[in-house]
Amino acid sequence: MRAAVRYVNGQWYDADAGPLVRPYAMTGGRTKPGPHGVRFDLIALVVVDGEGGDAAAESLLGPEHRALLGLCRSETQSVAELAADADLPVGVVRVLLGDLLEGGHVKVSRPVPPARLPDERILREVIEGLRAL
């Protein structure tokens, strides 16, 4: 007996298999973002570039690209949040973000590496100095 296939929120579903569009189809079989091999940390922040893409260029994007842009429009989102909100695997989101970054649709701010953060001892001394004022 074959499970019923239905169309919900822009995706085809098979009750037994889940979404019928597999992740590799959304990325064109690619597993790495862009030709430059950009790496997106899970906590990297993504925001729509106000100066970047226009409506005509955006209309040429795939539905998953547009969904990510829609999520970033309301507020700055991390890569992990985008994956969760879009209900897509993180690897797929990274590839799609690479496309959006190259097209000038988004800006990504990478997290500060722990080695560049001030030492905890210095921060405590600053706090104690401020309290002494």
| Uncertain runs | none
Taking all Cα atoms into account, the compactness measure Rg is 20 Å
Instruction: Summarize the main sheet.
Output: 3 strands, antiparallel
Number of helices: 6
The CA-CA distance between the termini, in Å, is 77 Å
Provide mean pLDDT, rounded.
77
- Beta-strand fraction estimate: 15-25%
The protein's oligomeric status is: single chain
* Total beta-strand segments: 6
Order of helices and strands: EEEHEHHEHHEH
Bulk shape: elongated
Structural class designation: alpha+beta
Please give the share of residues in helix: 40-55%
Strand order across the largest sheet:
1-2-3
Describe this structure in words.
With 133 residues, the protein is of the alpha+beta class. Helices cover 41% and strands 15% of the residues. The chain has helices at 23-26, 55-59, 63-74, 79-86, 90-102, 120-132, and strands spanning 5-8, 11-14, 18-19, 45-48, 77-78, 106-109. Helix 3 crosses helix 5 (90-102). The longest helix is centred in the last third of the chain and has 13 residues, at 90-102. The radius of gyration is 20 Å and the shape is elongated. The chain starts with a strand and ends with a helix.
